[in-house]
Amino acid sequence: MTITNNEKREIKELHLKAFGKEEGPVIGDLVGDMLEEQETISINIEKDDKLVGNVLFTPFKLNEHPEKRCYLLAPIGILPEYQGQSLGKELIEKGVAHLKSLDVDAIFVLGYPKYYGIRGFYPTYVALPYQKEVMRIDAWKMRELKPGSMAEVGGTSVACDAIMKPEFWDLNYEPGS
Ligand SMILES: CC(C)(COP(=O)(O)OP(=O)(O)OC[C@H]1O[C@@H](n2cnc3c(N)ncnc32)[C@H](O)[C@@H]1OP(=O)(O)O)[C@@H](O)C(=O)NCCC(=O)NCCS
Question: Would the pTM of this model clear 0.90, i.e. be above it?
Fold first, then answer.
């Protein structure tokens, strides 16, 4: 995906604001690194001619199922003054529609259990990166985009280089602390 340097700066700035003082700097750097990777898919949402939300999708490999085409949803951010107006939901659905058009099998996410639970994401048998065994935790979920294609699919996984750092997958990690 080709994104201009100006757009990259704008997207990074948006996530800095969305995630706030503590998490913002770590997530901003992660966004910067992800946007340098050619295969990253970046989806925006605008209101009043202004960028108010962004979500990134990066390739997510299943070691035992290399034929499956999967993406990781991370991060997603909506400007604080626009949060709680269903724009996050709209952004996820815009991303899902785009990924379906690319014939993607599934999307994975590590995030607020309730938020993604009501947006079509379910617990998965695929292990988190750096884990050898599946931990069916509420925060780790998958949304199947091709019906039935992920049935009985499990095993270990690897995310893109930018987010392949153990701290991003440590469930006790708090950015900024
Ligand atoms: C999380 C975020 C993307 C949601 O976007 P949004 O446009 O505010 O959310 P929507 O209006 O689509 O949905 C609102 C729902 O999300 C829930 N929600 C919002 N922030 C939440 C949070 N931090 N934890 C749990 N639920 C949250 C609301 O309770 C509400 O639930 P409901 O639909 O049951 O009423 C946005 O609030 C944001 O950018 N937050 C800061 C960055 C962040 O935390 N990103 C996600 C990391 S997993």
Answer: yes
